[in-house]
Fold this protein.
Amino acid sequence: MELPEIKNKLKSMLDEKRFAHTLCVCEAAVTLAERFGADKNKAYLAALLHDCARGLDAKQTKVYCEENGIKLDEYMQSDPNPIHALVGADMAKRQFGIDDAEILQAIKHHAIGHEDMTLLDKILFVADATEPTRTSFEAAEARRAAKEDIDKATALALRQKILYVESLGRPMHPNSIKMLKKLTECERK
């Protein structure tokens, strides 16, 4: 599927606010890719499709998982929000024809992260948390850090997500906790 066709299909799947967010994430991801030497095209495509499943509600998302063999861990059984990342990666492959494993992995892990994030994973994670419509103090701090250090920016973006999840009274996913531990260990070195 060509890029204009992907954009048109995506625009029909998402509400106006989510599509605008997506375009902002694309811009941020390309900037980060340029800054840290990653593939700009992969960063753009991962960012473009990172929220492609957001047009589905929680019930539709779980049905999609059942119908397409996507296994949900115990945490995701109780918190449907990060499931959109798993479904999004699957939809990117099935509905948009993306077969690049690195792009699919970045989409899959953009909501909660994981312990062994690649540069593209970090770029999408940070771009999603720091795009210009994110106005919290934590987003601004991560945005500043992203000018020099993608690992520091990733840690700050993760801490931003932790604050948000805790404000909802939800526990953090174990993958996020492992990721923060690893990033914190790297910061100490």
The CA atoms of residues 44 and 97 lie 15 Å apart. The chain has a mean pLDDT of 92. DSSP finds eleven helices and no strands in the chain. The first helix runs from residue 3 to 13.
